[in-house]
Amino acid sequence: MLPGMTGLARAILLLCPNCGKGRVMASWFRIRAGCPACGLRLERDEENEYWLGAYTLNFIVTEVVFAAGLLVVLVLTWPDPPWTAILWGGGAQMILTPIVFYPFSKALWLAIDLMFRPPTPEDFASSSDTCR
Ligand SMILES: [Zn+2]
């Protein structure tokens, strides 16, 4: 497997990209402060907007899912596409996709960040605050 692909595969399973053992999410919308297995601090850069990449990733996935769905519907129903259904279905998809993809966007962003900035000793928090 290519370097970093293991981390991405672990992130898709919502496991720590670093060790593959700890679950990164405390709930669907709340990421843990640190990995319960290896202690990796999951918010690696608190001063900058660390999760901006995850939000961007979530936005891109939402738009790509919409574009792919629109293309499929247009191809299947041309020359008489159901425009009202496309409007409402597209609106519902735009609301639901980011909610469903939310934890995956954070875990994948963490895996991508770890590919470009491998963990350093500072990334491993003390065990006292791994389950905030
Ligand atoms: Zn870990």
Q: Percent helix among the residues?
A: 40-55%
* Topology order in helix (H) and strand (E) letters: HEEHH
- How many domains? 1
Low-confidence stretches: none
- Can you count the helices? 3
Tally of extended strands?
A: 2
Distance between the termini: 33 Å
What is the global morphology? elongated
Mean pLDDT: 92
Radius of gyration, rounded?
Answer: 18 Å
Category by helix and strand content:
mainly alpha
Report the portion of residues in β strands: under 5%
Would you give an account of this structure?
With 132 residues, this protein is mainly alpha-helical. It has one domain. The chain has three helices and two strands, in the order αββαα. The protein has helices spanning 5-12, 52-77, 83-116; strands at residues 25-27, 30-31. It is elongated and about 60 Å long. It starts with a helix and ends in a 16-residue tail after the last helix. The mean pLDDT is 92. Residues 16, 18-19, 21-22, 35, 37-38, 40 line the site of zinc ion.
